[in-house]
Specification:
Number of strands: 4
Low-confidence stretches: none
Helix content: 40-55%
Largest sheet: 2 strands, antiparallel
Mean pLDDT: 78
Strand order of the largest sheet: 1-2
Oligomer: single chain
Number of helices: 4
Order of helices and strands: HEHHHEEE
Distance between the termini: 38 Å
Radius of gyration: 25 Å
Structural class: alpha+beta
Length: 140
């Protein structure tokens, strides 16, 4: 029992010093990052619900009166709002704002990942976004 206490104290001191060389590499815990899944899911739901309402409304009117613009994501409701003035113009404005907010949440989820604790052997899949490239990367 005294030996177990000495080993525990040694490991605690090594962990406090930051030198956890006594642990095997498969057990070392390192901070990692992963996409913010909650923001991505929330953005997809917000964007998808708003886009579905716009597309359904345009299809219900057989795309007459320039309602075809509602199929253009984010900008479509604002273009349709500018081309026709009617009583439900606030609905078009809110649909455009909701689509823009949903898109912004999805981008935020990928651009600002959250830090998690994991081992080097933990499985991870992520999206790496650059100026001219988008890569799906993973570790198994």
């Amino acid at each position: 029992m005294l030996f177990a206490l000495a080993v525990a104290l040694f490991n605690a001191r090594a962990a406090a010093d930051g030198s956890n060389d006594t642990l095997p590499s498969s057990l070392r815990v390192r901070p990692q990052t992963e996409p913010d899944v909650a923001a991505i899911r929330g953005g997809l739901v917000l964007f998808g619900a708003s886009y579905a309402v716009c597309a359904g409304g345009a299809a219900a009117q057989d795309f007459e009166g320039r309602t075809g613009w509602l199929l253009v994501p984010v900008a479509g409701p604002f273009i349709a709002l500018a081309e026709r003035a009617e009583a439900n113009s606030w609905a078009l404005a809110m649909a455009g704002v909701a689509q823009g907010a949903g898109s912004a949440l999805v981008v935020y989820g990928f651009v600002h990942p959250r830090r998690v604790m994991g081992t080097p052997t933990s499985r991870r899949v992520g999206l790496r976004v650059g100026w001219s490239t988008v890569q799906l990367v993973g570790r198994f």
